[in-house]
Amino acid sequence: MTNEDAGKIDKILNEVVEEIAGNDIVPLVELIKNKSNVSEFKIAEKLGITVNHIRNMLYRLDNYNLVFFTRKKDKKKGWYVYYWTFNMTELRNLAVKLKTEMLNKIKNKLASEETGIYFICPDKHIRANHETAMEY
Q: How distant is the alpha carbon of residue 2 from its chain centre?
């Protein structure tokens, strides 16, 4: 894979992550995207965010199956530590799904524009379809 291909993949990754989970998640994804089983405590330490906030961010990605985790019990402290891995395969599927949905919305909007009759006020403050214009 060339640097140009990697740059395109990173751009798509960032766009998808921003759209589904918010732009605050991008640094987290950049940190774990090519690694496996990354401790949530190490993620929190590197990003300077609390573990609870990191978990919340990871759960947002988990809602779209973009991450998966394994859970291990810490023998000293007795609590569970989660190790996270980014799911690049699902990212590709999700990117295609989102682009398809966007394309369908644009096609529907275009069909509506082509078949409808629209009116615009002389000062271009409002644009209305035929039905709404008749009400005014």
A: 25
Parallel/antiparallel/unpaired status of strands 118-120 and 67-73:
unpaired
Average model confidence (pLDDT) for the chain?
Answer: 88
Residue 28 DSSP one-character state: H
Q: How far apart are CA 32 and CA 69, in angstroms?
A: 12
Q: 87 with 34: CB under 8 angstroms?
A: no
Q: pTM of the entire structure?
A: 0.73
> Residue 21: CB partners within 8 Å, gap ≥ 6?
57, 60, 61, 64, 66
Contact in structure between 12 and 24 (CB atoms under 8 Å): no
Predicted local distance difference test score (pLDDT) of residue 75: 84
Q: Give the span between the Cα atoms of 110 and 104, in whole angstroms.
A: 10
Tell whether the model's pLDDT for residue 53 goes beyond 90.
Answer: yes
Say if strands 80-86 and 127-129 run parallel, antiparallel, or are unpaired. Answer: unpaired
DSSP element (H, E) containing 81: strand 80-86
- Angstrom distance (rounded) from CA 123 to CA 81: 62
Residue 40 CB-half CA count within 13 A: 23
